[in-house]
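Trying the structure run again after the queue cleared.
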Amino acid sequence: MLKGKVAVITGSTSGIGLGIATAFAAQGAGIVLNGFGDAAEIERTRSDLASRHGVKVTYSPADMSKPSEIAKMGADAIKDHGKVDILVNNAGIQFVAPIDEFPEDKWNAIIAINLSSAFHATKAVLPDMKKRKWGRIINIASAHGLIASAYKSAYVAAKHGVVGLTKVTAMETAELGITCNAICPGYVWTPLVQKQIPDQAKAHNMSEEEVIKKVFLLNQPTKKFATIEEIGALALYLASDAAGSMTGTALPIDGGWTAH
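Done. Tokens:
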């Protein structure tokens, strides 16, 4: 389905990003991984993806809070792979606290990594897509790009911004063979979610077991976490030729959460 395509996926050394990278590589796409982590583990991931699927896989250590490094990631991807067909803006961090106790440095970091990085990465690869009149930009937003939850002011603000950026990008590229869509997951069982559980338990004065049932999955009618594989499958469709008429959308994959 994606043979010969090249995909840059931010925040792809684990979790949803790695799931999307795996789905794309299995369909023949070359991959640029990005993210933090143990260097040896990242190299094992890169090497495994490449050998298992017979595609070229490179790694960019770009810090998604630094515009100059994001621009270099885009330029290096084009230099190393010859082009960028698909961009998945997935990098994200989380912190929970009441607004009046929310640390300003956490606010700034979340806005930079969860929202501004998507703008900078899009800016970096869009000229190449325009030149070839084909491109797929997939922004990983969140159900929190459509609705809100307490204690997540920065994350909710950033993800609402991602949905807005998606719409503007779609409008600006609508006649150029480029699409831009947002995936809005509910709670997916990932390292990011696992790290939230202790903080949320503290904020709500609950046990971790209680916070999973009464906070995380309370409004998710399926009462289960979405899977990384489900997100990867949706991203794969949006990256395909079959989704050529889908642009500017925000697609929930949230177990019915936003249907309330």
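Residues 171 and 260 are 29 Å apart (CA to CA). Worth checking whether this holds up in the mutant runs.
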